[in-house]
Amino acid sequence: MFKKNNLFLGILYGFIPPVLAWLIFAVLLKNDAIVMDKPAAPYLIAILLNFVILRFSARAHLDKTSNGIMIATFACTILIFVLKIYAR
Hints:
By secondary structure, this protein is mainly alpha-helical. It has one domain. The chain is built from three helices and no strands. It has helices spanning 7-28, 41-59, 63-86. α1 runs antiparallel to α2 and α1 (7-28) packs parallel to α3 (63-86).
């Protein structure tokens, strides 16, 4: 999976877990899951998955890919934080 050292590819890898979490929990389940009592939980799980992906890319010494994953993780974290504050 991690063979190219590319910033754009790292950003793409970093946005996959949050997008999948949004698709699974917001679109497919539509409040049928127990997790939906805590609306930010799926996204926080996705961010934790990003840190696992980041660890694998860092161990493979792919610095640009790791930077891209970290950029995507921070962007998603800030977006979730802002949306949760203004959703009240």
